[in-house]
Amino acid sequence: MIWDVARLGRKGDGVAISGEGRALAALTLPGETVEGEARDGRIAAPRILTPSPDRVRAPCPHYRACGGCTLMHGSEDFVKAWKVGVVTEALRAQGLSVPIAGVHVSPPRSRRRAVLSGRRTKKGALVGFHARASDVIVDLAECHVLRPALLSALPLLRELTVTGASRAGELSLTVTETPAGLDIAVAGGKPMEPALFSALAALAERGDLARLTWAGPDQQGQSITRRPPALPMGRAQVVPPPGGFLQATTEGEAALLSAVRDITRGAARLLDLFCGCGTFTLPLAETAEVHAVEGLAAPIAALRDAARGAGLRRITTEIRDLSRRPLLPDELGYDAIVIDPPRAGAEAQAREIARIGAAKLAWVSCDPVTFARDARILAQGGWTISRLFVIDQFRWSPHVETVAEFRRS
After folding, report:
1. How confident is the model at residue 217 (pLDDT cuts 50, 70, 90)?
2. pTM exceeds 0.90 for this model
């Protein structure tokens, strides 16, 4: 059957149309004509009959199987424009139109943090990303998004998998490059016992790891720390919780921070909501007092430890579930507010911010749809987006982030 690809869906698959309906076609681009049979609404292996002028040769040998990248077959200009379009279309669907102030794309081989999967086999182990729409692990030999240090760690990760994975289980391996060395957090492994601890300690020594954290079934992680895996956040040094959230690339983090600093410039008292372990709090506290709010205790503890002795302005912290208990208008009396919610957005908090008077507001988002929903709530309260920055630190994936400057109308 012959299909015409009309556009890309939000996950990067082509939306293909024929006389009999529509289906999703992986690894296609708008304007292409493809051939293939649809099953359950998907064309598993479309054959390109008429390629798009934006089509390029994907440089990675794993590309067709691996689910880590979905857009490597598109030119850089096409992917950049498509991601900007994803953001602007989501806002337009909510009746909002905004100026794009800038676009950042992190370079190839820049991911300092990745979550890989590991599984034992009869001959050893597989370590890599899952295949598209599958629980099959694509065993990586090469990767064009990971930093070289992460790629070089693959043999050690396979040894960890052979040593500590059950025969039927799958490990989740969160690997972060830090100036002190790799920080690896493993979940889903065998229960920690003395013999396993000794084997893991030997692997951490041989791999010169900064920290190795192991969590078996129903166990809290137990860490082998050879050096604190500290990361710079402004002039502070943060040791994040094992496997804790961090921005994926240093270039992307710098772009996010630059936009937030620009939006909040001149504020003497700042509020940082969903602050994590201090990505924005610590650099902003070099020039302003900051109240940092986060729902989890471990990131707050890491932030507090990093702030000590860093020569920063006053930082206060609060552990609070902002989805269930958002800050109310009488608690939002700051010169500027920074908010960086999870993928689900911050609908409840947006409703409270919509009720306050003028303040500088920098809204960081990792999901255009939930951001557009929250932006509409703010717009109904009299706020407008004056500038929007698009940040792409997940190169060749459909993921895109934004930083928006809101002002009172």
Report:
1. confident
2. yes
**Strand-by-strand arrangement of the 289-294 sheet:** 100-105, 383-392, 401-408, 360-365, 336-339, 269-273, 289-294, 315-319
Q: How confident is the model at residue 362 (pLDDT cuts 50, 70, 90)?
A: very high
Tokens of 298: 């471990």
**In this predicted structure, what is the pLDDT of residue 409?**
76
Q: Which of 66, 69, 275, 366 is catalytic?
A: 366
pLDDT value at 360 more than 80: yes
The DSSP-derived string for 23-92 is EEETT--TT-EEE--EETTEESSPEEEE--TTB-----TTTTTBSS-S-TTB-HHHHHHHHHHHHHHHHH
Q: How far is CA 165 from the centre of its chain?
A: 26
- Whether 366 is catalytic is yes
| Cα–Cα nearest to 207, from 184, 185, 189 | 184
**DSSP E strands, 302-408:** 315-319, 336-339, 360-365, 383-392, 401-408
Mean of all residue pLDDT scores within the chain: 96
Contact 239, 306 (CB under 8 A): yes
